[in-house]
Write a structure and sequence with these properties.
single chain; 314 residues; alpha+beta; eight-stranded antiparallel β-barrel; globular
């Protein structure tokens, strides 16, 4: 994917990467966020309801091969699984539609995002790491003027018992268009067939530093790991261009189909280094909303991905 032409957007993307590097240190060959991960392969099988929502090719074919990446938060490649900072977890999905043709879903385990724009996110990161000792602190001032960022920060983010027992949420809304040309906005929600299960802080603390990565490897060796890919559909008057806004839980959920993971990806470390997921769908039948985070996230992912690929192999 090419970089956007907007020079301000590129400059903001570069500023964000510099800020994250300053916070967590440089780790060549790894992502600036969600550095630690593991990749699996499998397939996606659409449900009969999928075509009512979208005409996208992976929703009309019998099945589509997929590659997914589970990951832990922060840019630290060796963050322990029992570290609270490793939450929220994330799940990225690539649907392989043809030779060098694909579309992705990027999700994490906390519903929403702390800020509406990338500039606000940069201000949030700077406030969170400021050494200014004045009262109120820069972070307290930021939260005072951005109450939804405070709400996101205060949302419990407990560790799952397994990557396969976590629910994942798409950050931004998309516009889904069916074969009749009817368009509706929605957000992805990915639910585990095994059921969601979280650990309390004391239980998580007693777990091994690699318990999640060991567990998912053992689980997939025993048989397929399944998820349902759903879309929470917005009402016509819902806000669809602001990732900090939650829609009411009474909004309908449409089941798009089943994700079945069957094998670890060979040469996992190299595969993770090479793949660059894209938050913009770039496929007929699913369009980006006007959420300002989308173009920014795409630029940050591409810039960091190019940097990651240029790093020497470990």
């Amino acid at each position: 994917m090419p970089l956007p032409a907007d020079q301000k957007l590129i400059a903001l993307s570069e500023d964000l990467l510099k800020q994250i590097d300053a916070m967590q240190g440089l780790h060549p060959g790894f992502r600036p966020f969600h550095a630690r991960g593991i990749m699996m392969s499998g397939s996606f099988t659409p449900s009969p309801d999928a075509v009512s929502m979208t005409r996208a090719p992976h929703m009309t074919r019998a099945s589509t091969p997929v590659t997914v990446r589970f990951s832990s938060s922060t840019g630290l490649p060796v963050i322990p699984d029992n570290d609270p900072n490793a939450n929220p977890r994330a799940l990225a999905i690539r649907f392989h539609l043809g030779e060098r043709v694909h579309t992705d879903i990027i999700s994490h385990s906390t519903d929403g995002f702390p800020t509406r724009t990338g500039q606000e996110f940069l201000e949030f990161l700077r406030a969170a790491t400021s050494h200014d000792s004045s009262k109120p602190s820069p972070l307290e001032k930021f939260f005072a003027s951005h109450p939804r960022a405070l709400a996101f920060a205060q949302t419990p983010k407990s560790a799952p018992s397994s990557f396969a027992r976590e629910t994942y949420f798409g950050v931004t809304a998309m516009r889904f268009i069916n074969r009749d040309g009817v368009g509706r906005y929605g957000r992805y929600r990915i639910t585990p067939d095994a059921g969601t299960e979280h650990l309390d802080a004391d239980t998580a603390k007693r777990k091994d530093a690699n318990f999640l990565y060991d567990e998912i490897a053992e689980r997939i060796a025993r048989g397929p790991v399944g998820f349902q890919i759903l879309v929470q559909v917005a009402n016509p008057d819902d806000i669809v261009d602001d990732a900090t806004v939650h829609w009411p839980e009474d909004r309908p959920l449409i089941n798009l189909g089943k994700l079945s993971l069957t094998n670890p990806v060979p040469d996992n470390a190299h595969a993770q280094k090479r793949i660059i997921f894209d938050p913009i769908p770039r496929v007929d039948g699913i369009e980006p909303s006007d959420d300002p985070l989308l173009e920014l996230r795409a630029a940050v992912y591409l810039l960091s991905g190019r940097r990651r690929r240029q790093a020497p192999e470990q």
